[in-house]
Each structure stands twice: as structure tokens, then as C-alpha cells.
Write a structure and sequence with these properties.
elongated; 16 strands; five-stranded mixed beta sheet; alpha/beta
Length: 519
């Protein structure tokens, strides 16, 4: 019929009392569905009695409304007008008692009910409305209680599965088994790492609940509930509870991972800070984490910094750890430090190649960053790893001095040449050597903001080749000659005395080493 409202089809939950089922109750014996047969599956939420037509506006949906039609007994059009309003408000059905006030339900009312699939039940004249009201409401409440009992029992079984050490897979399997529906955990990328209950349908899931840890969504628990033997409400509650339990499992896993990370970091930090007090205990603790400390290793430090002029994104510890384990193996002892990593590396055929591989992996994981890798010497006994770590820090500081604070490099302590010798001396001895040999040049540089010490260092590094040194310093050759004459005037002529020449070179290296230590 033109102008008829289009009404959504209502599907009753499995636990709900439908209009068709209500007609089978003893109190409704003799009642019959006379119109709106297509609405027989409508679920009944509650029953009520209509004394006046105005009651309809207070309806919230799902009501089985009973009436003697006394208020509209003389107004057939008013009764017909109630039908679309009841259908629009989502009432389950209208039960009309035929008898002294309304001998028969008018045909226009029945036709309108058929058009809207709104059930109209003809009640025998001798039936008591209160009896119907009582039995319908009692049946609805009993079914709701049973549904609640089933839901609570399922929640308890799910919770018990977790308390017994159950995993995500076990929870999803239990959910699918109890509901008879395929279920899964869906990752944020749309994949289904955990499924149960048979093949997953091509259709989208009918029930979903998010898995949220902190402020991050970690996926969803999803379920395909078409044709389920339980109501949608029960399915929704079950899926929501599984999502809560999966969230709890993820929180526990993260807490355990963080506790293990702290334990691992404390142990490794202790190994590179000082010799262990109890060798056997340190070895046992390391073995519990899957590390064999009896293998020869070198301490390696990695430092990551933003490249000059770049706008890099944040570098997380997880990304650095993943890069290191990719390059060196998952069982490599590695932990995060402010600005980088510390690693206990097995040297393999070549410590340099191993460190170069680590450098490449970290650089690839951290674009727009400079990466510095420095290694101490290989130690066969893990009680000496603190010495290797100290050497790695010295090599790192020296690399920053020689290659610039913003450079990328891989430097091994064993390749540091004379610096290994100088590094054995205390700061006081190094400073005395620098003061005795380069003191006048340092004082001149301080007073005149000049760079005689740096120029001398480049000149010696270039094997006293003035042309090469001037090119590296970006100055004219005559400017370098002038500086060299100033140096000779302030310190003598070191080139003419082999001992003085050696002392000058050592002093330049000592000055760099002290600068590196200060950095």
C-alpha cells in the first residue's frame, strides 16, 4: 500500500519469548493470531494492559499490549490508527479481547496489521487479561533468569580457564565451543592469529569487542553468531568478557616482559660495571636467561644521535633491540642505554665484521640518525667484561674526538694504536705531558682564539706534508707555513730532535684523548 512505513524486521534472541510461543501458553488457550502473521517471531519484552489509547506514547518497544478496546469501541478509525503507531514504536503485538465491547475486530484494522506485519491476537471473551499478563511476564522473567544464569556460568568457565593458565587460544576455543559459533582474535592489521570453531565465514563478524591495553587498541575479539543457539545479548556479553580476559593476559605478559627486561638489564649492567662477587651465581643467573657466559665475548656500545640538519622520528628501545638481534642473533645479550645500546658480542671470525654488521642494522633501523659503534677487546673470561666495556667507552669517546661529535663510525679499541698505550696512563700523567709539550700553544690559542694545536695535529697526521695539511685545514699553504713558524717559535724546533718529535706527537694524541675523556 502506498505511503505505508517501512519497518525493520525484528529477530528474537534465542532466549526471548516470541509472539508465536506466547500463543502456546495455557493462559492464551483459545487465542489466535488473526493478522500480521509475518510478525509472529517478534520478541516480547513485557506485557501490559491498555485502558486508554494514550498509553501507546509511553511504550518503549517489545510490549505485548492487551485490551478490551473499550476506549475505542465506537471509533473504528481510532482503533485502525493505533496499529501503525504501535508498529512504529516497536510493540511486539496487540491482543484484543472480543466480547461485549468489541464483537469483532474490524477488517480495516486487520488489513493494516497485515500490511505492517504487526501481529494482532484475538482473545476469547471469557479470558482474564490479568491471567495472561501474569503468565507472559512470568515466562519472560524466567527466560531472562535462565539467560543470565547461562551467561554467568560461561563467564565463570572463561575466568577459570585464565586462572588455570589458559592462553588466548584456549579462551577463543572455549568461546566457540560454548556458543557454537566461529570465533577469533583479530589483529589491528586485520589478520586472524587465533581462530576456533570451524572455518571463518566470508561475511563480517556479527559481534566484535575491542582489546585495549592502556590507550592502544591491540585488536578485537570477533564472533560470527548467525544461527547461534544463544541470544545476541548473551553472545555480546560472552565476547565482551573474553575481550576483557585477553586484555588482562596482554597486560600480564607486558608486566612479565618488563620485569624480565629490568632483571636482564640489572644483571648485564653489573657484569660490565665490575667483576661479579660470585662467579657461579652470575653464571647461573645468566643461564636462566638463556645466555652462555663461558663463550668469549667483547663489550660493544652503540650510540644513536640525530643527524645534523635532519628531522628524524623518535627511536624506540624496541627498534634498537630488534635491529641488534637481527644482526647478531636472538640470544645475544643486549640492553638499552640512554641514547643507544650495550651488547656482549661473540666476535665470530672477525670482530670488525661483526661490529660492521651491527652498525648497518642499526643505521637501517634509524634513518636520519648518526650511529657510532665502539668495541672493547675480546675477553675469554666473563669476569673481565667490565674491562672490555671500559675499553669500548674509551674507543667511543676517542671516535667522537677524531671523527667529530656528529659522525658515524665503527671503532675497535684493539685498532686504536698508540691510544691504547696512552689510555693506560692516568689523567694527571697525560696532562703533564700535554702541558710540558703543548702548554705554550694551548695558552696562545686561548689568548688569541687561534688554532695552533689543531693545525699541528693535522700537520703531523698528514706526515708533515704541508700541501695536504693546508688542504684539509681549508687554508692557504702560506698560512700554514706562518702557523708552523709560530709553533716553532713557541715550542722550539721539534723536527730537528727525534725525541722531541716523538714527544710532540704523543702529546698531540694525549691532548685528543683527554678531550675525548672530557666528552
Amino acid at each position: 500500500m502506498a505511503g505505508s512505513p517501512v519497518l525493520a524486521r525484528r529477530t528474537a534472541p534465542a532466549s526471548a519469548l516470541t509472539v508465536a510461543q506466547a500463543l502456546e501458553l495455557p493462559a492464551l488457550a483459545g487465542a489466535r493470531l488473526v493478522a500480521g502473521h509475518a510478525g509472529a517471531p517478534h520478541p516480547i519484552r513485557v506485557a501490559n494492559i491498555m485502558e486508554v489509547p494514550d498509553i501507546v506514547r509511553w511504550m518503549r518497544g517489545g510490549e505485548f499490549l492487551l485490551t478490551t478496546a473499550y476506549a475505542v469501541r465506537d471509533d473504528e478509525r481510532a482503533l485502525a490508527a493505533l496499529v501503525p503507531e504501535m508498529a512504529r514504536r516497536g510493540l511486539a503485538a496487540l491482543g484484543v479481547k472480543v466480547g461485549p465491547y468489541l464483537p469483532a475486530i474490524p477488517e480495516p484494522v486487520l488489513r493494516r496489521a497485515d500490511e505492517l506485519a504487526f501481529p494482532i491476537v484475538e482473545l476469547p471473551g471469557e479470558v482474564m487479561l490479568n491471567d495472561i499478563l501474569s503468565e507472559v511476564i512470568g515466562t519472560v522473567l524466567n527466560r531472562q533468569a535462565l539467560s543470565l544464569e547461562r551467561t554467568q556460568a560461561l563467564r565463570e568457565r572463561l575466568s577459570q580457564a585464565v586462572l588455570s593458565g589458559g592462553s588466548q587460544r584456549e579462551l577463543v576455543a572455549l568461546l566457540a565451543r560454548e556458543t557454537g559459533c566461529p570465533a577469533a582474535v583479530q589483529a589491528v592489521d586485520g589478520t586472524l592469529p587465533v581462530t576456533a570453531g570451524g572455518p571463518v565465514p566470508d561475511a563480517p563478524p556479527t559481534v566484535t569487542r575491542p582489546i585495549t591495553v592502556g590507550d592502544r587498541c591491540r585488536g578485537e575479539v570477533v564472533l560470527w553468531g548467525a544461527g547461534a543457539r544463544t541470544s545476541q545479548a548473551e553472545l555480546a556479553l560472552a565476547v565482551e568478557h573474553v575481550a576483557s580476559l585477553v586484555t588482562m593476559l596482554l597486560v600480564q605478559e607486558r608486566a612479565l616482559a618488563e620485569r624480565e627486561r629490568r632483571y636482564r638489564t640489572l644483571l648485564l649492567t653489573a657484569l660490565v660495571s665490575h667483576p661479579p662477587r660470585d662467579r657461579a651465581e652470575a653464571s647461573r643467573r645468566a643461564a636462566a636467561l638463556g645466555w652462555d657466559l663461558e663463550r668469549a665475548r667483547a663489550a660493544v656500545v652503540v650510540e644513536v644521535a640525530p643527524a645534523p640538519g635532519a628531522a628524524p622520528g623518535p627511536v624506540t628501545e624496541e627498534r634498537l633491540l630488534s635491529a641488534a638481534r637481527t644482526a647478531l642473533g636472538a640470544q645475544t645479550p643486549v640492553w638499552g642505554t640512554p641514547g643507544g645500546l650495550t651488547v656482549l658480542v661473540e666476535p665470530g671470525p672477525s670482530l670488525r665484521r661483526t661490529c660492521a654488521s651491527l652498525h648497518r642494522a642499526v643505521a637501517a633501523a634509524c634513518p636520519a640518525h648518526t650511529v657510532a659503534v665502539a668495541a672493547g677487546t675480546v675477553r675469554a673470561d666473563f669476569v673481565e667484561l667490565h674491562l672490555s666495556h671500559g675499553e669500548a667507552l674509551s674507543a667511543l669517546a676517542l671516535g667522537r674526538e677524531l671523527d667529530g661529535p656528529e659522525g658515524s663510525f665503527t671503532r675497535l679499541y684493539e685498532e686504536c694504536g698508540v691510544y691504547r698505550l696512552l689510555n693506560q696512563l692516568p689523567d694527571g700523567e697525560l696532562q703533564a705531558l700535554v702541558d710540558d709539550t703543548l702548554g705554550p700553544l694551548i695558552a696562545h690559542d686561548t689568548r688569541h682564539d687561534s688554532s695552533l694545536v689543531h693545525s699541528l695535529g693535522v700537520y703531523l697526521q698528514r706526515d708533515r706534508n704541508g700541501v695536504d695539511a693546508a688542504e684539509e685545514l681549508h687554508i692557504h699553504y702560506n698560512t700554514l707555513r706562518y702557523r708552523l713558524k709560530q709553533i716553532e717559535k713557541l715550542t722550539g724546533a721539534p723536527d730537528k730532535d727525534p725525541m722531541r718529535r716523538l714527544q710532540t706527537e704523543l702529546a698531540v694524541h694525549a691532548h685528543r684523548l683527554l678531550s675525548a675523556r672530557l666528552r
